Amino acid sequence: MFSNFVWSWLAHALPRAAWLPVLCAVVWTAIFLRTIPDLVRTPRLRPREAARASPPSYGRVSVVVAARDEREHIEVTLESLLRQTYPDLEIVAVDDRSTDGTGDVIDRMAASDSRIVPVHIRELPRGWLGKNHALYAGAMRATGDWLLFADADVRFYPDAVERAMAYVHAHRLHHLTVAPRLIASGYALKLLTAMYIFNYVLFKRPQSAYRRRTRAHAGIGAFNLVSREAYERIGTHRAISLRPDDDLHLGKLIKRHGFRQRFVVAQDMIEIEWYPSFRAMVVGMEKAPLPAFHYSAVLLTAAMMVMMVLYTTPFAGAIFGPGWYRLVYLYCLVLMGILYELHAVFLRLPKHQFLILPLGMLLYSYAFIRSAVLAVRRGGLVWRDTFYTLRELRRGL
């Protein structure tokens, strides 16, 4: 009854044109209040001031690295893992049907250091995506109490695993995912990268993953540290065998099963060049967006249109809006600016790009809608040089 009275009063009190700035203010206020408390409290793992003579061991850690045609990066990644200060480390390097000599590099390095366990996959079984199967095969070969799933182009700082294990032990976690330092060259690439991460923080809310009563969850492919107990309880990678967003969904299953997880920022712990160029990122994002929208191109396109309105309206209204409308839009820009400032500080991204946020959202929408159009045209997705039909992928939902 009261809510009906409020809506009736608003309908008479506000002119029809005022609904857009008011709605915009309500939405950005809700996003701000939901995001800020946990964002400002997001832990930051900092380097130790001095090396320990004998770092403690909290159980064996098996780092599982899935590599397909990664000859250019795999050696640097494995060398950075071999320099880890953590005392009980196993490195399971999985060559996933590579054709560029990646497997030869893994074998050569395994011959010189017994901590590297080589695994070679020649054929992909039906019902699996390549990377998911490679990570699963590596996990089955691993002997550790903890599994660290990592990409083949990540560079680990020497104390990365030691710091992560100390943190999960201190906080009694089952899952820890780490936001790496992202290396991006080129203005357009930095803008698209910033936009992707900004939306991830606002709408997926990894910083709130530690809250048990929320749906927020976290998972980053560069660094997913999981206890073997949790990994086996969620059904291993078999439960997400057809999910292109395997890292996110791994975190989602861990959270759903009641295990404790946390998202942290550690710029001086791991780093990765996510994509070498703007074009490479647009192409690389072909497989990412559709699973979140249940492989519906219509739903994805509609969501992008709504987000374009959400991001562009405050900028346009603050410049061209009449009277008090402009003040409402300026209020929205202040909230957006605070959110972007925190996000940029945490991840060391250009702060001034907030001023061209609508352009960033346009690039983001283009990459997402392009992925949907290509998927519909092809009838499926291409990932790691393998084609998967939409019918097959929908079964993975």
UniProtKB/TrEMBL annotation:
Question: What pathway does the annotation place this protein in?
Answer: Carotenoid biosynthesis; staphyloxanthin biosynthesis; staphyloxanthin from farnesyl diphosphate: step 4/5
- Provide the Glycosyltransferase 2-like domain boundaries: 62-234
Compartments where located: Cell membrane
- Tell me where the transmembrane regions lie: 182-203, 292-311, 323-342, 354-376
Q: What molecular function does GO assign, one term?
A: glycosyltransferase activity
Q: Name one GO biological process term.
A: carotenoid biosynthetic process
UniProt keyword annotation of S-adenosyl-L-methionine present = no
For this UniProt record, give its keywords in alphabetical order, as a comma-separated list.
Carotenoid biosynthesis, Cell membrane, Glycosyltransferase, Membrane, Transferase, Transmembrane, Transmembrane helix
What Pfam families does its record include? Answer: Glycos_transf_2
GO cellular component assignments: plasma membrane
**PANTHER family, per database record:** GLYCOSYLTRANSFERASE, GLYCOSYLTRANSFERASE 2-LIKE DOMAIN-CONTAINING PROTEIN
What family classification does the UniProt entry report for this protein? Belongs to the glycosyltransferase 2 family. CrtQ subfamily.
Its annotated function is as follows: Catalyzes the glycosylation of 4,4'-diaponeurosporenoate, i.e. the esterification of glucose at the C1'' position with the carboxyl group of 4,4'-diaponeurosporenic acid, to form glycosyl-4,4'-diaponeurosporenoate. This is a step in the biosynthesis of staphyloxanthin, an orange pigment present in most staphylococci strains.
Q: What is this protein called?
A: 4,4'-diaponeurosporenoate glycosyltransferase
Organism for this UniProt entry: Alicyclobacillus acidocaldarius subsp. acidocaldarius (strain ATCC 27009 / DSM 446 / BCRC 14685 / JCM 5260 / KCTC 1825 / NBRC 15652 / NCIMB 11725 / NRRL B-14509 / 104-IA)
